[in-house]
Specification:
Two copies of one chain form a homodimer. In chain A, 31% of the residues lie in helices and 23% in strands. Chain A is of the alpha/beta class. The first copy, chain A, has two domains: 87 residues, 2-Layer Sandwich (60s Ribosomal Protein L30, Chain: A); 150 residues, Alpha/beta knot, CATH 3.40.1280. In chain A, the strands form two sheets. A six-stranded parallel beta sheet of chain A has the order 7-6-5-9-8-10. A four-stranded mixed beta sheet of chain A has the order 1-4-2-3. In chain A, α5 packs parallel to α6 and α5 runs parallel beside α9. The longest helix of chain A has 14 residues. The first copy, chain A, starts with a helix and ends with a helix. The relative contact order of chain A is 0.14. Chains A and B meet through α5 and α9 of A and α5 and α9 of B.
């Protein structure tokens, strides 16, 4: 049973300002909650209906378990079809980005991505391809947005996300900087080497001019058909795939 | 000005049964409407607010133009942020799939894709890569669903979509059949040749067993990280990219 104020608190976490105020966010669904439980994140409380046996989660640590009615669960869920289990998870302190941790690997850089589904899919795709660092401009959508969390399918628990002042960051970094552009060199003829950053631009506007200036290698996915553009999640995935295919040559 | 019954009719087209009953669907936004106007589709009526000058569309033919209030436009829109212009478009007769039109090219086959955003993105991606034929199992989501139309960003006007009884179709076709699977051969070492079908499975379940039996080449995007799966739109894009990269060797 949840009180009105508990419901109101949990619902408020769908908004960024309340997530910041309370330092917490919501994860929904069995699989995602298991992924967060097996990560560095701290789960505070698990709310579940009698359709779920929380013992199956095999969780240890200081987690509160709270069996609630389906009606209450539907009230706090952000999903159209709630999944009988919701976790309240602590937002960790934003990790400090140590440039040396980016050596000899690839990281994705997002310049003002706005759509929660897009960044969620990007995090999931990065996790598939073993890319563990995503660096976001300060105005990129918050990854603890419930739609982002949902779209990552648990991968948010494993990928390190950083929010930075992007121009400063790219100016200082000593790594090859690749950027997705419409007029760059052919991605299929690009040698990505063994380390670097791949910068992806905003859905409508692409990369900001001041970011383009910092990109050393503008790279294009050649178009053979007639669509005006590719979705940014799709384009990011093709970059990840091209980077990783080198290791299978 | 729209009557109550007009509003009710236009809103009803968000549901498949009314789209079938009336043989019409809705396209929203300036760019998409231009794409449909420059295609084989027939636009019946364009509804617009005074924020738009429909003459800019430079459309000819028997199209009705109907200036309406923003309030009415918001009522008939399926978008959170309506775009001041909505077209009522005729659903054409489903094209008959002529197997010879698939020779010497690639087509995407969808086995029970359910998410409108996924199929919309797949259509847009196919259009980018010049893949003009998408063949769907009968239970794949309807492409005239407003969320699909929106996600295609106008590409639906250019890509040919077919709904077929998939088992029969794959049994009869004389083309190489590739299928996305978790235990197939490495996509980066796969020679796709110059023609064939690429079959992508349902979001939760992958390919149906009876479809797997008909796949000649099971192909896998190798995982180097820890995500359990890739989004089907992402996986399809990586297949499209691998097929097309051959032409840049």
């Amino acid at each position: 049973m949840l009180s009105k104020s508990q419901i109101s608190f949990l619902k408020s976490l769908q908004q960024k300002k309340f997530r910041i105020e309370h330092g917490a966010f919501i994860v929904e669904g069995y699989k995602s909650i298991v992924d967060f439980a097996n990560s560095a994140y701290s789960i505070v409380t698990i709310y579940y209906t009698n359709a779920i046996d929380p013992k199956l989660l095999k969780l240890s640590g200081k987690i509160n378990f709270n069996e609630i009615s389906l009606t209450d669960l539907e009230k706090i869920s952000s999903l159209k079809s709630p999944q009988d289990i919701i976790a309240l998870v602590k937002i960790p302190d934003w990790p400090v980005l140590n440039a040396s941790s980016l050596k000899n690997k690839f990281a994705i850089v997002l310049d003002g991505i706005q759509d929660p589904g897009n960044i969620g899919t990007i995090i999931r795709t990065a996790d598939w391809f073993g890319i563990n660092h995503i660096i976001c401009s300060a105005d990129t959508v918050d990854v603890y947005n419930p739609k982002v969390v949902q779209a990552t399918m648990g991968s948010l628990a494993r990928v390190n996300i950083y929010y930075v002042e992007l121009t400063h960051f790219l100016k200082d970094i000593k790594l090859p900087i690749f950027g997705a552009a419409l007029d760059g060199s052919n991605i299929y003829k690009t040698d990505f080497g063994n380390e670097g950053l791949v910068v992806m631009g905003n859905e409508g506007n692409g990369l900001r001019p001041e970011i383009i200036d910092l990109v050393q290698h503008a790279v294009t996915i050649p178009r053979t058909g007639r669509a005006e553009s590719l979705n940014v999640g799709i384009a990011t995935a093709i970059f990840c795939s091209e980077i990783k295919r080198n290791s299978y040559k």
